[in-house]
Amino acid sequence: MREEQDIKQWFEHEVTGVLDDLYGAALRLAKNPADAEDLVGEAVARAFGNLHTLNDRQAFRGWIFRILSNCFITECRKRKTRAEMSLNGDDASDDGEFWLFDKLHQPFLLWWGNPEQEFLNSLLRDDLIKALDGLPENFRIVLVLAEVEGFNYQDIAGILEVPVGTVRSRLSRARSLLQKALWQHAKDRGITTEPTKDLNRQDTL
Amino acid sequence: MSNDMSNTTSTNNPSDKNTIDCEEALKRLFEYIDHELHGRRHEEMEDHMSKCRSCYSRLEFEKRLQQHLKNATEQKAPQELQNKIKKLIHKL
Ligand SMILES: [Zn+2]
Q1: How many angstroms separate the Cα of A189 from the Cα of each of A119, A128, A146, B35, B69?
Q2: Closest Cα in chain B to A164
Q3: Of A120, A138, A156, B11, which has the most beta carbons under 10 Å away?
Q4: Is residue B5 part of a domain?
């Protein structure tokens, strides 16, 4: 009994230490506070029930994130039809890579100052959240683990139970998709224009 | 050939073991930012970044973008959730 109390106390201490991180990740996975809280609650309950699978107490953070990810993925599968799930495959999205730097770092734009800096300055928290939330789950989850939670590739491979090579390629794809979405949001807000088109139009006028 | 930006390499020979081109640097860029490169692959990037202004600006841009994303997503768990989790653990 005494030992059981000690374990519980230790568990509570560990959970408290990672709660902000768990909630932050859950919020970007579930996309709303109510579902994020449910997701964290479920992960904590499941973690306690599976405490015997934690071999190394030092590895608590990665271990509980694995449980959180699994809860999320299971929940997604329950909610979605097969067709929707298949959209989340690794080769789901269309064309090639997209990098903001290539869009911004053009001679035409460079005449006016520092387009990269201006773009970054104009980015709103909302733009970033929208772009991230719009990504398919597979890509969103890997980006959250790497960029938000700061896990290394090996840890992410363990959390998602996929090979390191898959983490690397998914992460690269996720970043490209995120940047494409950011560019789209910026265009929608009128921050960027297609420079080459405008230039051509002016030339012909 | 002038090499005013760095004197870390002893030779300007492009086949020097520390030399990679921009294409290769770009391929490794995110692994470099993520601290996933080690040994020679890391040194080659350091060397390239110290000499190539274009790749260096790209590196800085990507790092700043990452920082923006990190700041935007930083979130504290609501007090209410902290209480709920405590209660939950006691019931488990
Ligand atoms: Zn270069």
Answers
A1: 12, 13, 28, 34, 19
A2: B36
A3: A156
A4: no
The answer to whether residue B85 is domain-embedded is yes
In a domain, B51, yes or no: yes
The alpha carbon of residue B69 is apart from the nearest alpha carbon of chain A, in Å, by 6
* ipTM tops the 0.90 cut: no
Of A20, A155, A18, A28, the residue nearest B69 (C-alpha): A28
User: Which of B59, B81, B91 has the highest number of chain A CBs within 10 A, making it the mutation to test binding with A?
Assistant: B81
Interface touch B58/A105, C-beta < 8 Å: yes
Has residue B12 been placed in a domain? no
Count of structural domains within chain A? 2
Q: CB atoms < 10 A from the CB of A200, how many?
A: 11
